[in-house]
Amino acid sequence: MVSRTLTGLRSGYLTGEVISLHDLPVATSRVVASTAWGTRYEAAVSSDGAQFGELPEGTHVFAALDANDMTLAEDYATIREVAGKDPVMGFVTSFDAASRDEVLTWLRDLRCTVVQVYDWMDSYSVPLATTRTYDDPLGRPINSEDLRALIVGIQSQGAIAQAYAPVCAADADIADAHPLWRLFRNDGQPQSLGDLLQVMNPGAEGWQAYWIEQYSRALDVLGFDGLHLDTYGYPRAALDEHGDAVEMQDGYVSFIAAVRRARPHVVLSFNQVNGVPRGLTPPSDPSFRYVEIWPPNTLWRHLEALLQRSAGAAPFHGDTIAIYPPVWHLENDSALRTVLISHAVVTMLGANALVWGDRRGALCHPYYVNHHDLSAVDVEQVLEWHRFGLRCRDLFKAGVDTSWYELGDENAAVVVNANAPATPEPVGGALFTRVRRDQHRVAVSVLDLRGSSDGAWSSGTGPGESDELELIVVVERPERWRAEVATLGREEGRFVSVLTESREMREGNGLVCRVPLVTGWSVVRLVEGEES
Asked: I need a surface site. Which of 376, 411, 442, 482 has the fewest CB within 10 A?
């Protein structure tokens, strides 16, 4: 296996930045950056290293090659016009100095471009501590100097350090002192999250001003360059102090606008729990849309509708789903497979998943501190799947998704011949297949869900099957098209050229190729070129 690290390469860049690499492997002849579609950009290579000029937006594979074009080292980085857009997400809950190197190494291995720093506050009402050491709201000891060093470390890797920031949470003393800021139930009792916190009205101007002052002070002192605005998915029947109904969506819109005015440059995300509020306009840039999934959305096939609800009429590509599969009490391989498949499904939908982070951790609980710790063997498998997703992720954001009207019917323009049905939605016992197409390119992704009986991200998943599929795609003038296949578990996931032939279909000739399925996920890219 080749090295996965190119010295000097950060996880994230803005367009126009110069990318410099150094300490290249011995025998390096060329250094290239490749898009998901295979377009290559050459670096200027000298004895001091390699340097790229302006590269296009996207997640690129960077490779050091020898004189025979063999890969000596390979790595990934994401380039965006706007910081934090379409993020590669991670989380962190360990802030102590002893954990820092492990945390930063894992975040770098994941190539995270946005990292949510979870539950770092002194209290909900006054997040910035006045002492160097303090306890968070649930009693965890924190050292502010260590926290600051971690934030700097995240940013030095080319990622945004995003402060977890609950929109409506207050301690009892502040809530009691300001009844006009808080929310009430229809029985007259205050809205709360158990005994932990009081729920405030996001539309109350006094609360907005207080919140912004407190969190702005924390951002300035600790150095965060992002805010994750968290909500709890309720209240759904909120009243003010006078017993009048409060429209939560209007309050959230007002709150987001106030935060953006006060902090125009921080990267914002707002948690639309289960897609609520529906169709909420996200904060103006720099920002990204964020959705936390909960029951009854327990199936993989629910994910697409969840994204559509949250986005409304807007496109949802690049949005992030926070997902906490509660499966780690099951047999380990079954649990890990569920989490890997869940992340892959989200990627194929053109979105991003928050599930990995901290010290080789995987989310399984909404209190992020209670995450699952991966074994060394699990880590290798996670990185193999994750890097495959990074290699292919831009293919699912281009062109038009034609899966629901091109796949599998009598007049199909895309046919997958296999020993299981190929379906455009992720259901158990099937091959989840997605097709994205523009005039000169087609991407087809196949994910093996035959190990799942119920298609749920909350259940265990057995192994898939090693198989070879036959793919037929109707294109104009098939002789002008070439096919490349990336197979998880083979050729280190790289795209390789495959032979094609022509076959008569109802609408003319289709392009036919063989697609191996080894570990469970294969992606085909078809590109029109010169006539062969």
From this structure: 376
What band does 412 get if pLDDT is binned at 50, 70 and 90?
confident
d(CA 394, CA 283): 23
Please check whether residue 353 is in contact with residue 341, taking contact to mean a CB–CB distance below 8 angstroms.
no
Q: Measured on CA atoms in the order 495, 501, 503, 509, is the torsion positive or negative?
A: positive
**Length of the chain, in residues:** 532
In this prediction, residue 532 carries a pLDDT of 43
Cα angle for residues 376, 382, 387 (degrees, 5° grid)? 130
Q: Is residue 125 helix, strand or coil?
A: coil
Which tokens belong to 256?
């987001």
Place of tokens 């057995």: 462
Continuous segment of H or E residues that includes residue 144: helix 144-156
**String of DSSP letters for 68-90:** T--EEEEEEEEEESSTTSS--EE
Q: What is the pLDDT of residues 454-484, one digit of tens each?
A: 999 999 999 999 899 999 999 988 889 999 9
Per DSSP, the residues of 2-25 read -B---TT--SEEETT--EEE-SPP
Measuring CA to CA, which residue among 326, 380, 334 is closest to residue 106? 380
**CB 355, CB 339: distance < 8 Å:** yes
- Which pTM was predicted? 0.96
Calpha distance 70→56 (Å, rounded):
24
91 vs 161: CA distance, rounded Å = 9
Burial class of residue 503, CB neighbours in 10 A (0-12, 13-18, 19+): middle
Read off the pLDDT of residues 182-203 as tens digits, 9 standing for 90 and up: 999 999 999 999 889 999 999 9
Nearest-angstrom CA–CA distance, 33 and 114: 22
